[in-house]
Amino acid sequence: MQVAIAGAGVFGYKIAEALENGDHSVTLIDIDSTKLDKAAKTLDVLTVNEDARKVQVLKDLGIDSYDCLIAVTETDEINLAISVCAKELGCPRTAARIREPEYMGQLDFVKKAFGIDMIVNPGLSMTQEIYRHLTEDRSLKNGVFSSGNIGITEFDARDNQAVIGLSLSGLRELMPNLRLIGLVRNGTFIIPKGKEVIEADDTLYLIGSRADTSQTASRINKKKASKKLKRVMIIGGGRTGFYLARNLSDAGIYVKIVEIDPERSKYLADNLDDVIVLKSNGTDLDLLEEEGIDDMDAFIATTSVDEENLLLALAAKRHGIPDVISRVDHDHYKNLIEDLGVDMVINPLDISTSEITEFIQGTDTVASSALMAGQARLTEILVGKDILIAGTPISNLGLSESSSVAAIERDGKLIFPDTAASIEAGDRLLVTTLISDIGEIERLLKRKQ
């Protein structure tokens, strides 16, 4: 597939990095030659040092021969303009990053008016995952996801005391019809590799037949008292903080948001109803104590600085806040995050890159997918005869530590395969992947030449 990406910033680079693992020819377009030079040195992509808004540039590129264009420059209006031009010139599918809150209430209208097939908004995507976690206490709707005969169920270990202290083999004896495909521990999603022991604070994700997962969910989750969220503090009034404060306030939840920039604070105060906006430095722990951090049910650190978010998350946990969530944009903090013991860590670019790759993949090979805890994705791959992995033993797939074959549906039957099992044409292959390494899915989708 030929894919053009307009914008070689962090997001554009991340999309290109994910796609280069698959059957894609990627062209990266930007007016900044420095960004393109970096991409050219590390990625197998074609670079074009031009302004993608110019019709002649897109014509010279032959945009009508491309399958898709993704516009992810730093400006919403430029992304809209590029997407419209590409569509008018014959590119069949376009996607645009739109981030400003003013557009959010009219996304369907914008898509229809501009002929855009997909709008991606990292801040809004992250907000939706955080909101679901806070208000529903789970990342899968009603604790269950299902596609065809396959289902996933999600529950906290402490809500089913029998699983605490079990190894993976012990869990299989207790629940023979289900398999553990992932767990969240100290805010981090872990794909089990065989040595894990279930702890009381873990959140478990298990796969099985639709009937078995639904039955397990109804039996365990009905014991759980509904989550009562009354008071929330948000540090950082950027787009994510804004969206989240608005959604929580609309749900009748008391929200305080702390923002250091005077102009941004005024914008928040003018555009958020029933939200207390504090113009101050969110890293001032004395201020947070004065503003009642100890009384909060949840605390979200969503500034643009990872170090600040992690410091604040640690402070909030020490204050005993039940739900602490931190935004982290860089992967090199992973080990530190696990030590902090926060309840949820989320990366907006990882989520949005996963959304973009899913959009590009279409439905001919990817039947369904589910996002888990904002950090991992379960992808259902339809294995056709022309897919390279058909006839390959799982042990020969070369999967990284961030991916695992969860199950196979073959001839209507669910199989929990071992590494010696082979993938066959006609299978529905279920793969769990950390979205920070979503390019792994692209590699599995490669077709025979």
Can you walk through the features of this model?
The structure is a single chain. The longest helix has 15 residues. It contains 15 helices and 22 strands. Helix 6 crosses helix 14. A hairpin with a 2-residue loop joins strand 7 and strand 8. It is an alpha/beta fold. The chain has a 6-stranded parallel beta sheet with strand order 3-2-1-4-5-6, with helices on both faces.
Main attributes of the structure:
single chain; 449 residues; alpha/beta; Alpha-Beta Plaits; 3 domains; 6-stranded parallel β-sheet; 15 helices; globular
Topology:
Elements lengths: L1 E5 L3 H10 L5 E5 L3 H10 L3 E3 L6 H7 L6 E4 L4 H13 L5 E4 L9 H8 L3 E3 L1 H15 L7 E4 L2 E7 L11 H7 L4 E7 L2 E3 L12 E7 H12 L9 E5 L3 H12 L3 E6 L2 H10 L3 E5 L5 H6 L7 E4 L4 H13 L4 E5 L6 H7 L3 E3 L1 H14 L4 E7 L3 E7 L20 E8 L2 E3 L12 E7 L4 H6 L5
Q: Can I get a quick summary?
A:
The chain is α/β, with parallel strands linked by helices and 449 residues long. It has helices at residues 10-19, 33-42, 55-61, 76-88, 107-114, 122-136, 168-174, 210-221, 239-250, 262-271, 285-290, 306-318, 334-340, 348-361, 439-444, and strands at 2-6, 25-29, 46-48, 68-71, 94-97, 118-120, 144-147, 150-156, 179-185, 188-190, 203-209, 231-235, 254-259, 275-279, 298-301, 323-327, 344-346, 366-372, 376-382, 403-410, 413-415, 428-434.
